[in-house]
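Late entry, evening session. Most of the bench is empty. Finally got around to the prediction I had been postponing all week. Sequence below, unchanged from the version circulated by S.P.
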Amino acid sequence: MTRQRTIKETTEIEGIGLQTGRKTRLVLKSSPADSGINFIRTDLPDKPLLAIKSFDFKGLNAKNKRRTSLSMGPMEAQTIEHLMAALSGLSVDNIIVEADNAEFPGLDGSARDFVAAIKKAGIIEQDSPKKILKVTEPVWCRDEGALLAAFPDDVFRISYTLSYKSGSIGTQYSSFIFDREVFEKEIAPARTFCLEEEAAELLRLGLGKGANYENTLVMGKAGPVKNVLRFPDEPVRHKILDLVGDLYLLGRHVQGHIVAIRSGHRMNMELVRQLKAKGREVLS
């Protein structure tokens, strides 16, 4: 039996939100088996809680572009996908995340520092079997040249095709069968990115207030501006990172092959809705 996992010690993570530019401190705490992932806003009256396993996705905040944000009443949690990816990649099932602001820290634009903080806290097994969401039939969604689908498989696999007109990105493809080592080495360090010609427009829209050339790959015609790539195909790996994090909003690990062509957070959430309705929960 594969057992559920939580962290051993309390740990803190502090940083600036990539979109809002506001400072946030996260406190990660252990949580009992079968409790799932729970967000608490300590800066709000009565410290409201948002439980991932009971979230119905009606509170998905679509107005917060270029990030995954959940809301329920006064409770809102923005840009959660990198932390969620780290929890998924390290196979942490149960945890309490306390935040003193709406947007989670962007750190270096990847999941690498979240992984380091969680590993420093230690990960322990719990006396309860891990729950898996098994893809039992093909499901898909599509929109304006983008496609996202899930197919039955014996493992958790993601195959992603990214296509930009920008010469420094172009068309990139990567496919991974996931375990903790693959996630930590091949996906977690991949940083968020934008095109150089997009940067001014994003700032005009009130986004990217905490972004800089260190935590965001600004992709110019010849490559990243004032930065260097960690992987030759770092942009597509970051899209996979985002997808791993978004899928973990199911509250369970996925067994299936996810095929993505130019998908983003909005389409990721549509696939999550479909998988939640059509997938079958099994014990690992």
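Two things to note before I forget:
Helices lie at 81-89, 112-121, 180-187, 196-204, 234-247, 265-278.
The radius of gyration is 18 Å.
Will write this up properly tomorrow.
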